[in-house]
User: Fold this.
Amino acid sequence: MDFFPIFMRIRDRSCLVVGGGVVAARKIDLLRKAGGRVTVVSPELCLELTALQSRGEIEHVERGFREDDIHGRVLVVAATDDQEVNRRVSQCGQQHGIAVNVVDQPDLCSFITPAMVDRSPLQIAISTGGTSPVLARLLRARIESLVPASYGRLATLVEGFRERAKRCIPNTELRRRFWERVLEGPVMELFLSGRERAAGETLDKALDAGVDARDTGGEVFLVGAGPGDPDLLTFRALRLMQRADVVVYDNLVSPAILELVRRDAERIYAGKKRNHHTLPQGDINDLLIRLAQEGKRVLRLKGGDPFIFGRGGEEVDRLMQHGIPFQLVPGITAAAGCASFAGIPLTHRDHAQALVFATGHLQDGTIDLNWDMLAQPHQTVVFYMGLSGLPIICREMAAHGLPASTPAALVEQGTTQNQRVLVGTLETLPDIVKGEEVQPPTLIIVGSVVALQQRLQWFRPDAPPTRGSLFASCTTPETRGATGTAEQAG
Ligand code: SAH
Assistant:
């Protein structure tokens, strides 16, 4: 993070703008909206600013910038087309510890202004750190269309009840839940449908009723996070991720996904790497139960799908034994994610009429599987956890009846920007993989569908390959006339 995001109170505080053109006018507009008292230093003013000045809404100092102009200001904006003046304003501001912004010159700025969706008092600020104002603008447009204009009025309504809520529900945690429940439920529905008074009355009643019993106990959200790409999360996963008090995550959860968990949530790594368990499964179960019994909302975040080689069944079993409420959210399992992103249609009807998910996990140097059942024609087999057992898998599949020329693929870090697909046959794949620096997680796909990959591959991650893992284990409706502003590097 290159910039620290803050919202600054400038009401009735003195702000200096150096420059009197239209660019300065845009900034002045914003400063005045936030209640700032604006002084403009410039030999000339554009028409818009002249009008403001004649109405006494800004102060005008009719000359060039002098260093002592900045004294007593909370912030300074330089918006002249003279580089030298801009530079002097920047230096002077920085020397005196006054926040300074130079329009379109990020290197001279100590603060930049974000693109903004303004539903005052609700404000959404977007910044790309000055790298791409256009991207920020595009995002802003999307958010504008997602956040109804009435959200601002909703925030005002909530504000009116805050003090009372504090008195009625002194416990911060319970109060937060109360607000979440209220805002996710009927109050929100009424408000968005335009029945603002009814929404207020419902909120009033809800406060009278206080906190209901459901809010006092903890809960566990057992959530599948998919194979790596955050875009492959489900809506429900994302919603629960935003509501968690604590997250217990495993090594397959990528940092990009963890980023989407509520910022204040405590993070507990329970990752399991091959051969050394950071936390044994029993301890994880106990941890989930303890945290829930403490009244927390516990997010158990797992790679892929919790019920596919994810030990979700054991966790659910224990939660039920202890009477702990839970929600279970399926995720895109690695086989589905990797196959799609590799261009391998697992059950292409010309090739396979059955699909088997198997574990290639080694126990005592061997893999205990029913090879006769796996080595069948017209069938695709996907091996999870099979990297170290790859030579055994290929050997056994051939020994039990599949031709050695059967196509086989290894998908490395599927769906992520680091995805690679190594394709060979049962005979050649182990050597191909040996020659590469393969990083977990990897998935092995065996069957004639793999031959289609050459034609159907479509996903070409174009990020420069970072030869490490992106996963934790491996190193770890409308706008209704509301306004917004664009991010500017200055
Ligand atoms: N519950 C998970 C699987 C957990 S077992 C799911 O449904 O996907 C862990 C194994 O999943 C890894 O050893 C690897 O074989 C596979 N895997 C998970 N994510 C993967 C990815 N992005 N690319 C390749 N394989 C992956």
In short: The two ends are 18 Å apart (CA to CA). The mean pLDDT is 89. The first strand starts at residue 14 and ends at 18. The domain at 336-456 is CATH 3.30.950.10 (Methyltransferase, Cobalt-precorrin-4 Transmethylase; Domain 2).
